[in-house]
Fold this sequence. Notes:
612 residues; alpha/beta; 5-stranded mixed β-sheet; 24 helices
Amino acid sequence: FKTPVLMIMGNYNNDPIKIAVRKAMRETGRTDVPDISDLAELENLPLVERAMPAARDAVAQTPRNSFMELVYQAALMNIWRNIEVILSSSASIAEAVASGEMQVHGAFLEVDTKKVQFLGQHPLQEQILSKPSKQDVIRTAKDPPVPPLEALASLVAGNKRYTTGHGGTLQVNDSEVKKALCSSGQNPIAVIIGCADSRAPIEIIFDMKPGDLFVLRNAGNSCNEKTACNMKGSMDYAISVLRCKLVIVMGHTQCGAVTAAVSAVRSGGASDLGPTAIGHVLSLLTAAAERAVKELPNGTLEEQVALATEYNVQETMRKVMVHSKVANDAVTRLDLQVHGAVYDLFSGEVKWLGQHPEVQQFVPNMPLELHHWHTRQYTPAPVQLSPGRSPGARQALMRLIDGNRRFTEDCAKAYAGKVEADANPFAVILASSEIGVPAEAVFDQKPSNLIVQRTMGGIEGGDGGDTDLYIASLEFAFLKYRPKVFVLLASPGQLPEVALEQLNGCKAPSEPMRRVLTDHMESTLKTLWQVDAVGSYTQAGRLSLIKAICTEINAWYIIEQLVSYSKILREAVRSGDLEIHVAAIVPRTGRAEFLGEHPLLSHLVSLNKTDK
């Protein structure tokens, strides 16, 4: 967007700041700490912890100030702190500010008067910019694990960069970054079981950095069925200790081991490969070779080898899931996916085979409904005219529906009304920053009636990492105001196009952009494969269809992440205290089409991914 100004705005009517100041006052032994008993359960939430540095600074600098004076001071400090974090952690923004292309300003909203006090740029901006922001970013054990389909999308995009000549840009030259990888431990996004062939270098094929992949290689990308197997044992370590959520079994064209196994079968010597180590390796490929020759009895050696290569990948996938309890249990929980692939030595492209076609036979206890939801063609959800399960949710949703009707009929009456500082919002709206109209206007509501959270990015969190800011904010809003509904607005924007460019092999994104694209990459990849399988009449029609389907899929995926990674929200949904709905915004009219809750909500809340 090339935005010339980035505004960081705060206000003193901020509950996380108030709670943080209260904690900071207690830490210094102040006895005049106000009693905020109704906020006690919020004190240890991640959002409050993020506000603690500003609160501690305010108490330390003005120790005799009253509580509200400290809140005011901490709110100002928090604005400057956020600017400091942005300039020191984002190389792209820091470079734009240093070159004069962008300015980062602070602003303070006086809630009572609605006036905005413009604070200007950070007083120590030059000093902050004098220390270069990190250009290189590397995954360590401090980062949250990457969900399986997001990891798969990263591999697809990396291979496209490699084949289109845009690979090799992910260099790590910063010694501090390398040191972080050593001191903080590894956190790879996927396990790759590949062939030892020197022409198939795994990290280069997928254009990955050190620490991104846990690579296991041997001749023929195979493993035996014994429990004591080095390949499976190493994979189990990556799944259980390193928290990998994706295993890729990858063969390649013109594989010498597969060719030898097929040649032996063709000559009738499959059962006599010899007692040597090479013979043992080839014996692991015999089943795939025999199947290929049987199915293509009149085929050429090259045709039989190509088919045997894919069958061998599937056979290793089967062994991984059947003979590794760690992998089997993880697939059962839908916490792990095992995919197959074949690398073409000539073109450099990876052919993706997907999950094993008989995975439900190997993992009989996996929740099939959710598995089918993720793997089968998506059908757009029908519009619900009377959404909501509980009376409170139905009432809140009808207020939104009525307000949206007024908005579309140009008879809005509540939007931009008086802001009530002590109001109790009845709904939380989750929307993209790309939506050009405020959510309060779309639903014709006073600003104090809604909590609106807008962001360009997706969710990164759960399973041991710091709680994602997106989730932390929603947890705080729910516990503070107890709304009956969250509504996620699905509106087509530019992010699916950016994600599509990545999947087509454009230059690797910056780290901030990668974080923005996380869930969009997963949704766009699924949509891309679906649309290309069905086909479209024009390129413009293809793009339009991808954006429309991707927008809906992404909305459902965000709900899956919220329910998976937040125990607070999941328990609220399970108990019926909260409903999370999707509303699709029609771009031309602004009409909100309510699509209801996630179609497989009951299955999602039963997975209990973070109940440990």
